[in-house]
Each structure stands twice: as structure tokens, then as C-alpha cells.
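Quick one, C-alpha cells below:
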């Protein structure tokens, strides 16, 4: 699975407000929860992450993060490799995602497709995801089977076969996957177009699944080189959360993973996206009934202090149907079926703040766009009421807390933070959100949400071209 599958529907997840903390939790469930916390501050978690996470770095460079969470007799094992589409080069986009597929194709000890079968036969669940910034492999399994799962994961970290007879058909599977998920999905194609225009230099412009012209040219040799370069213990870390004893589990991890040799550190990504100096706008014509509007503005990531007010700003504009965008364009003006905003700070490099809207039948993007930015102007001009500001903070806090309600989502939260800023930064998140003032939110809106820093992509309904048979 590619992270683009999660994000392609909207720029940065903007169509419906999505949290970087929640994995598969449904948005409507969160709406019900938030009714209960309308304006009261969300409860604090017991203890800090510094108290809960044990960090160990093995001699070969593999970092191990252990989190004892005995709420249920299960364990989530998540192996992160610090490589994604961000690390790919021209003519070879999509290799990270293709290698993710190949990681299930066998080692000298485990035959092709046997990895899934072994996990399933032991009552477990496994999955993988490729993003721009990382590739992650998940195993959720009963606590008494943790050593089995770790053995399988260590085996493919060092002994992947990458057999030609497995590679060729799987390459075609991924090519077909792109056709189904991008080419045949107009809204996903629009999102891909938007990112390709918003980023002119940085590899965030490339879709994690790859560009269609690059995919048939992938070779087994490309896979071997990519695997040997990036799938090394000093470019990976392991997060294990669930019911286990740290003192007993760590030696088992050391025995399984510690013997994998360290290799040269992979090359760093040094490209920096230059400041945008004027609006960019694209129109995509597809066979659809209704238009879609996407807009993104370049913004800093989690390591910048503006990440906190930008997060609050996203919830004020797009935190559900009671937020400003839908209240104005949906309820009051009855122009759209959805209108949202999103900011996901969990990116290694600066990314974007996104807007989206879907005009109703008979309505146009030309009617919708000025109203979206009129709301931006109003927020900059008028102080945000205390109740509205606190509500946005409560939403963020609640989602952050509920993201820890299972060992899987807890491990994912710790891992995603580790990729971007180091897991220890988790302990400063809630404090940073709580300190945000109305003036902070107004300042970042005025600084970043300006026309010269804006890229827009519009899905334009167009009838299908007539076929030769119909002429």
C-alpha cells in the first residue's frame, strides 16, 4: 500500500479533516467523542513518553523503542525504514513502494508469500505502507507469538531474495495498482497534479507510487541497489508496543537483529524547495459530474514553532461541520457538499497547508473560492472568540490522546514522531498546543495563507471524448 492511497483523495487530507495522530479511526466517531469535550480541556495522559518508552541503540545502529502497554495480550511490531519517495531520483520514482511489495516475496528461510500465511496462521495481522518520508512494516499479533514475528522481520531485513521471477509479475501488479488508484480516480489524479506543481524542486513533487513512465523501466538490479542502500539497520528503527517485559524482550531483539551488519549511511536529501513567488494554478479536465477545488500553501513542519498555531488554524477552518468553512459555504450559502482545511506537520521537510471544497450541482468553483479566502481575511482581521479557540485545541488534544487507544496506533504515533523530530518531542506537543493564542493563529494565517504562496488545482467536468466507433 502506498501512502498516496491515504492522501490522494485530498491535498494533505484536506477534504475531510484528518488527524496525523489517528490511524484508521473513523472521523464520525471522533465527532461523537468531541461532543463530550465541547469546551472543557481534554484530560492529560498519565505519565510522559519519556517514562513509557525505553530507547536502545544496538551496535549496528538499529534503534529499538519499547513501550510496555499491558491493556490486552497483544503486541504491535512496527519496523520503520527511513526511506520513501523523498529519497528517489529522476527516472526511478516509485522504487520505495515497489520494494515494499517485494519484501513479501521471500528469503532463503521463508518462501514467497509465506510471510503473510505464517502471520495469519498464528492469528496475527500484517501490513505495510510507503510514504514520502518512510516505509513501515506492521505486525500485530498475540503477545506469546512476539518472538516469531520478530524473527520474520529480522530475516527479511538482511536476507531478501529479490528473485527475478517474482519481480517481473509484481512490477506489473504495481503498474496496474497505479492505473486503478490514480489514473482511474479523478480526484486522486487531481491531488497528484497539485503536488507536482506545488513542489518544483523538492522530491515531494513525486507520487510515492511513482510516475507511469518510470515504472516499466524498473529492474531487479534497481531493487537490489535500493535494498542494499536503504534497508540497513543504521537506517531503520523498531517500535514494539504491547504486553511484554522489556528486560526479557530486549535480549531477544538484540540476538535477532544485532547480528545484521551495519552498512554505509544512505545519502542525504539536500534539495530545499525555493520560496514560492507567485500563485500557480492548474485545471484538470476529467469525465466527472462535479468540480473539485484544492489549494495548498507552503508551511513549515513540526520542528518549527509555527506548527502549533498552524494546527489550531486548520481545526478552526476545517475541524468538522461546525468549523468555519463548512458553516459558511455549506450551511449558510449551501454551495458545497464539503469544505475543509488540513495541516499535517509530520513531514521531514516543510510541506503544505491545504484547503478543499466540493461545489454542489449547479454551483461553481468561481463562487466558492472567494468565500474561502474571505473567511481567511475575516480571521486575520477579527480576534478568534475564546470558546472557538478552545474548541479547536480540545479537538487536537482529544485526537492526540485517542491516537494512543490501541497498541498499534500508539506504536505508529511514536514511530511517525521519531521519523520527523525524534519521539521525545511527543512530550512537548500538548504544551505547545495549549500555549497557542488568538494572535498566534492570526499571525500564521497572515504570514502563510497569501496568494503568492498558493497553488491551486481544479477538477473540471468534461464529457468523455467520442470514440472512433461512435463517430
Amino acid at each position: 500500500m502506498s501512502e498516496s492511497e491515504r492522501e490522494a483523495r485530498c491535498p494533505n487530507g484536506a477534504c475531510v479533516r484528518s488527524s496525523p495522530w489517528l490511524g484508521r479511526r473513523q472521523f464520525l466517531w471522533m465527532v461523537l467523542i468531541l461532543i463530550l469535550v465541547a469546551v472543557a480541556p481534554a484530560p492529560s495522559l498519565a505519565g510522559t513518553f519519556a517514562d513509557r518508552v525505553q530507547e536502545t541503540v544496538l551496535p549496528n545502529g538499529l534503534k529499538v523503542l519499547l513501550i510496555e502497554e499491558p491493556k490486552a495480550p497483544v503486541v504491535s511490531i512496527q519496523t520503520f525504514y527511513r526511506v520513501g519517495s523523498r529519497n528517489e531520483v529522476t527516472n526511478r520514482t516509485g522504487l520505495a513502494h515497489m520494494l515494499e511489495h517485494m519484501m513479501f516475496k521471500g528469503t532463503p528461510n521463508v518462501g514467497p508469500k509465506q510471510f503473510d500465511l505464517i502471520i495469519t496462521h498464528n492469528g496475527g495481522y500484517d501490513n505495510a505502507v510507503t510514504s514520502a518520508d518512510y516505509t513501515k512494516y506492521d505486525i500485530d499479533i498475540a503477545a506469546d507469538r512476539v518472538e516469531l514475528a520478530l524473527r520474520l522481520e529480522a530475516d527479511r531485513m538482511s536476507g531478501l531474495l529479490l528473485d527475478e521471477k517474482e519481480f517481473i509479475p509484481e512490477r506489473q501488479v504495481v503498474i496496474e495498482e497505479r492505473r486503478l488508484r490514480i489514473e482511474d480516480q479523478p480526484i486522486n489524479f487531481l491531488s497528484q497534479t497539485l503536488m507536482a506543481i506545488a513542489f518544483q524542486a523538492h522530491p515531494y513533487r513525486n507520487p510515492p507510487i511513482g510516475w507511469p513512465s518510470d515504472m516499466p523501466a524498473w529492474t531487479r538490479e534497481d531493487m537490489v541497489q535500493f535494498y542494499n542502500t536503504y534497508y540497513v539497520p543504521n537506517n531503520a528503527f523498531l517500535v514494539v508496543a504491547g504486553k511484554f517485559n522489556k528486560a526479557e524482550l530486549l535480549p531477544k531483539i538484540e540476538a535477532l537483529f544485532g547480528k545484521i551488519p551495519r552498512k554505509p549511511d544512505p545519502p542525504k536529501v539536500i534539495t530545499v524547495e525555493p520560496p514560492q513567488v507567485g500563485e500557480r494554478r492548474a485545471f484538470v479536465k476529467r469525465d466527472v459530474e462535479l468540480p473539485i477545488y484544492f489549494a495548498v500553501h507552503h508551511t513549515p513542519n513540526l520542528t518549527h514553532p509555527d506548527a502549533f498555531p498552524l494546527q489550531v488554524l486548520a481545526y478552526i477552518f476545517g475541524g468538522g461541520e461546525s468549523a468555519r468553512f463548512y458553516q459558511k459555504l455549506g450551511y449558510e450559502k449551501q454551495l458545497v457538499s464539503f469544505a475543509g482545511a488540513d495541516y499535517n506537520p509530520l513531514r521531514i521537510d516543510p510541506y503544505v497547508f491545504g484547503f478543499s471544497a466540493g461545489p454542489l450541482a449547479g454551483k461553481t468553483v468561481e463562487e466558492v473560492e472567494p468565500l474561502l479566502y474571505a473567511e481567511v481575511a475575516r480571521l486575520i482581521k477579527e480576534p478568534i472568540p475564546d470558546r472557538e479557540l478552545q474548541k479547536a485545541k480540545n479537538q487536537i488534544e482529544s485526537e492526540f490522546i485517542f491516537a494512543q487507544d490501541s497498541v498499534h496506533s500508539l506504536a505508529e504515533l511514536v514511530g511517525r514522531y521519531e521519523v520527523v523530530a525524534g519521539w521525545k518531542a511527543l512530550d512537548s506537543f500538548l504544551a505547545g498546543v495549549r500555549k497557542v493564542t488568538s494572535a498566534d493563529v492570526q499571525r500564521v494565517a497572515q504570514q502563510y495563507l497569501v496568494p503568492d504562496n498558493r497553488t491551486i488545482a481544479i477538477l473540471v467536468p468534461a464529457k468523455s471524448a467520442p470514440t472512433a466507433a461512435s463517430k
